[in-house]
Structure formats: structure tokens, C-alpha cells
Amino acid sequence: MEFRLSEKEQAFYEEVEEFLKKELPSDWAAYNRAWPGGYASGEIPGAGIREAFVHYRQKLMEKGWLTIAWPKEYGGREYTYMEKAIFDERTSYYRAPNVDVIAVGMVGPTILEIGTEEQKQEWLPRIASGEVSMWLGYSEPNAGSDLAGIQTTAVEEGDEYIINGQKVWSSGAHVSDYAWLIARTDPTATRHKGVSFFIVDSKSPGITVRPLINIFGTHHFNEVFFDNVRVPKKNLIGQKNMGFYYLMTALDFERVILVGIGGFKRIFEELVEHVKRTERQGKPLKNYQSVRLKLARIATEIEIGYMLFWRTAEMLDKGLSPTVESSALKLTSTELSRKLAEVAMDVFGPYSLIEEETEFTPFRGMAPRGYIDCISATIGAGTSEIQRNIIALRGLGLPRG
Predict the structure, then answer these.
(1) Active site residues
(2) Claim to verify: residue 172 and residue 218 sit in the same structural domain
(3) Which of 137, 334, 385, 398 is disulfide-compatible with 181, CB 3.0–4.6 A?
(4) Cα–Cα distance, 74 to 163 (Å, whole number)
């Protein structure tokens, strides 16, 4: 692997950076309170946030960067996966909004892999134009890490499927147009068979969405109930009963796109700057050996995360399947989210508990927010334990325990 960007890639890197500096509000990154890898702490105080988001989204579509790596016939720009990785790294570093991340980053690429030509023509242009948004209908009350245990059913009846069941931790289901949903289509099959993918209109009769308020008091998650929800047969994506195997492809895309590796670098740089400006008992905090060692370890792990990130992009460009590598990337980055939060709490001592903005608050009050939110990073898109199992089984060839 070449450990530096080509001339073309470097030019694109600079183009993306210039675009972000121009199209995002100048204080966007400074006030963004999202913890890297977390699911609950995203918050940008102040007025005009919605307007800034809409403006940024529109500019992305004008540039063709919303679906940057897709084929041109489906609304994309056919950039390489490495260029897509550069785009993701820079946007996460500048803490840019995640625009249509599920529809664009997960559903679209999966339809490109498994969908019929008719389905590609129906859904991909609509996703590329920002016409539709989607939420993930994967997890259930008794099926999270073990998605083979899903109980939601889809029963064929004439030209439709009738869906019954429940999904949970459904991010954005209350504001999204469609569900990207897995359901059991053959209850007699073994656990890893008899599952299929569907696109379900969120406005369909029989769907009930109930909010799940997160630890910060905001509404992001939901539980969703399906009571005899009718879905056209054409909305079954890919082959019937092959959904679990397709799910492995979809999760690869999810684990890569949700990493936000640049966000780790940005928040770490901010942490280091705060350490340099802080004193403890009349001595600069940066002079404490214990603090220096903790920061050095985090810096090293960020570099490891970056190498796995670029490696995954390189494999995708070569047509290889980065199942093990994407799990290693997901595991490394989300465990880093936890370690980074713990270091932030440690180095600032008792003051790290202060979240409100006061003259005594270090690190913009990010330490306690990160500490609370970092656990979610190790759970979403497959727990750390699941990632270790994948690495052991598929990467090392070890037997199941």
C-alpha cells in the first residue's frame, strides 16, 4: 500500500477542505458537541442550525458529492473509494453534518450490490437527489447483536407482503420516509436463512413510532411497531430468504461510514490544546508525565485507526471484501472513543465533571458528555464482542467457542 496520497488525491483533499471552510458556518466545528463514535451527544447550540444544514446539503448535491462513489447512471460521480474515504475523513474532521447517511451510505450501496435493475432505477436516483430519507429496521427487543434472532415476519399474500413485529433503537424513524428493514420470510428455515430485505413506506397504515429519549434528554431513537403492514412485492430487495447474507454486506458499509475517523483527530487536537493551557497545583498540566503518557497512547491509536481506514478503502477499490478489516476498523475506532473519553476525564480531574460552560470548565464540557456517550459507540453497528468474534472466525480461522 502507498502510504501517501497521489497527486490527484491530494488535490481532491484540498478541494474538499476548501469546500467545507466555505459552506459551513465558521464556528460550526467549535460549537459542535458530538462525541466521535457516539450516538447520543450530537448537539450544536444556537440559532440557524437547520438553515445551515439545508444549505450544506444543497451544496453537496450541487457538487455531486452526496453520492460521490456511485456510478454516474444512478446519480453518482464514480469517484474511487479512496477519494470517498478522503471525503469522509475531511467532513468528519470538520464535524460536518451527516447528510442522509443511512440512505446514501448504507442502503444505496447495498441496492447497487443486490438490487434488480428496476429497483436501482426506482430508488437510487431518488436517494441521490435527496428526495427520500431512510431509517434502519434491524434491531429488535430480543435481536441486537444476534440479528439472526429477529422475529418480525413478512408473510406473502397475493402481490404484497404483510409485516408484523417490532423494531427498536430505530434512529430517525420519526423523521424518515422509509424503513430499510429485515424480516423473516420463512419461519421454518434455520436462523441464518429465511430472512429478506424490504423497503417500507413509513406512512404505511399499521406503523406506530414511539420515542425513546436518550441519556441527554433528546429524541433520536425510537421503537417501531408493525401491525399488518402491507408492502408491495416489488419492495423486496434482492432474493427472497437471502437477507442475512446481504446484511453482512450492508453492515460492512455501515461500519466504515459511521467511523468518522477525522472526528477523533479533531477532538484529540482540541484536548491537547486544553491540556497545554491548563495548570494543576501551579504546574502546567502538560508537564505531568502521567498526562503525557496517556495522550501519547491515544495519539498512537488514532494513527492505527487511520491506517485501517485507508486500508479498507484500498481494498474496496481493488474489488476485495473488507469484512475482517471493517470489523477491525470499527472495533479500534469505537474502543478509541471510550479510551479518549476516559483520558479526558482523568487528565482534568474533578473539573472534568463540569459540563456547563463556566470559567472553570475544561475542554468545553466535552469530557462528561464523551464519558456518557462513548459506551454507545461500542454497541451500535455491532458490539465490540461481535467484532472480535468476526476477526477470530473469519480473520484468524479459529473455531466457534
Answers:
(1) 254
(2) yes
(3) 137
(4) 29
